[in-house]
Amino acid sequence: MEYLFISDLHLSPERPDTTRLFLRFLRERAAQAASLFILGDLFDAWVGDDDKRPPIPEIVAAMKHLSTSGCQLFFISGNRDFLIGDAFARATGCSLLPDTHVLPLAGFRALLMHGDLLCSDDRDYQAWRLRLRHPDFIGEFLSKTIAERIAIAADYRKRSGEAVSLKAADIVDANQATVEAYLRDAGAGLLIHGHTHRPANHRFELDGAGALRLVLPEWQDHAGGYLSVRGDAIGRYVFV
Ligand SMILES: [Mn+2]
Question: CATH topology for 2-239?
């Protein structure tokens, strides 16, 4: 049983090479795995499941093909695609997971997150996050036309910094005390997340036991970094 983990692909019409790489990753790599966990920011922006602009339909079809071919697909949304909903889940055959998800992995209780909640030093971002995810805001936003939503999203991006920004330098790193609090809450010793674009393996001690935080990389046009877990073996790889 092999589990794969990816995040931060930021797929968009402006990054056709990354989209092509992801479509090939699904066919050639994920198809060999039991499960693929996408830990957020698969898309650079998501204004609603009814948005059918290219390259979205091709990506949705490729995910559906994978999920119906025996690889289970799981999705935790990121700060840029948090509006992904049930229609997307049905169309792709993926299971939408909440902001935190715990599963047994590599001999650990493992906690999966996108990672933005760990960046608690960025108060402005966390305030934006709360505002954007308020059900009233989401309901009103989704009631608008797609063109209106695109315009609003562009305006928010300008005003909100990393609430929806992509520049790695703008993203504050994870706060260690917050990391430890989430691990304690989950009773977990392993954390896998993305978002910060600071790929690394962090080993530390948590309440007298060894803990591990694995940060996923942002995908580049011709290099898709992913994590593979098979039994107790954890490996980092790059799909090219
Ligand atoms: Mn993110």
Answer: Purple Acid Phosphatase; chain A, domain 2 (3.60.21)
